[in-house]
Amino acid sequence: MLTRLLPQLQISPDDLGVGALDPAGLFGPDVRAVWLEVGFGAGEHLAAMAKAHPDIGFLGCEPFINGVARLLVDVEELGLSNIRIVVDDAGLLLDRLALASIERAFLLFPDPWPKRRHNRRRFIGQENIQAMARVLTDGAHWRMATDHMDYCRWMLDHMTGSQEFEWLARRPGDWRRRPDDWPPTRYEGKGIEAGRPPAFLTFQRRKRHQMAQVSRGTL
Ligand SMILES: C[S@@+](CC[C@H](N)C(=O)[O-])C[C@H]1O[C@@H](n2cnc3c(N)ncnc32)[C@H](O)[C@@H]1O
């Protein structure tokens, strides 16, 4: 499967210049927008979303080749034609993507790097937040989940501290309960089994012209 299917679906960011990749061009004319999943693991969320949204092109990024192989089984079994795969670090892909080219992003159960001296390896940090803000369209949603409460606080601190994103939760149920259109993943199951209930966070990328008005003090 890896040798047969992967070459048809794989995108190599190394071959592209900075900001050069318009991801819509990777898909057919029926695709109206592109969504991105960072660190898809075994790909169960990515495959379920691609099946549920045939009018969306899905870019999945995962350096762990066993996870990619598992996703390819689903791609074949479900006959999915709207997934493209980057087997690499998402930071590299974000650099290559064109400005405002992704309409929704997912970061589900990223590695928590629990030791304090390793915290800076976490995916959420200034650099990746800025990179994601550049590639997301105005009003785009960025969904994140974690079962690690320290990382949850870290996500909230970093995201609410950035000018570009607003947390959409209004009441506890909004982050304690996974929305119905959000398929579960393997790591969510592991967390629940271990007695660590996950948090489901949705952020919205602020509109660019509103941000300019805020910084000029006219809003
Ligand atoms: C804890 S697993 C979660 C997998 C999956 N999202 C889930 O919920 O089951 C974290 C995943 O992120 C991937 N990962 C870590 N750093 C990454 C990066 N910089 N870019 C893309 N993926 C990354 C790892 O290979 C791993 O598969």
List the helices and strands and how they pair.
Layout: H1 2-9, E1 33-38, H2 44-52, E2 56-61, H3 65-78, E3 83-86, H4 90-96, E4 102-108, H5 126-135, E5 136-146, H6 149-160, E6 165-167, H7 173-176, H8 186-193, E7 199-205, H9 208-216
Parallel strand pairs: 1-2, 1-4, 2-3, 4-5
Antiparallel strand pairs: 5-7, 6-7
Helix pairs in contact: 2-3
Bound molecules: S-adenosylmethionine (SAM).
Summary tags:
alpha/beta; Rossmann fold; seven-stranded mixed β-sheet; 20% strand; binds S-adenosylmethionine
Give your account of this protein's structure.
The protein is α/β, with parallel strands linked by helices. The chain has one domain: Vaccinia Virus protein VP39 (Rossmann fold). The chain contains nine helices and seven strands, in the order H-E-H-E-H-E-H-E-H-E-H-E-H-H-E-H. The protein has helices at residues 2-9, 44-52, 65-78, 90-96, 126-135, 149-160, 173-176, 186-193, 208-216, and strands spanning 33-38, 56-61, 83-86, 102-108, 136-146, 165-167, 199-205. Strand 1, helix 2 and strand 2 form a beta-alpha-beta unit. The model has no long low-confidence stretch (mean pLDDT 94). S-adenosylmethionine binds at residues 38-41, 61-64, 67, 89-91, 108-111, 123, 185-187.
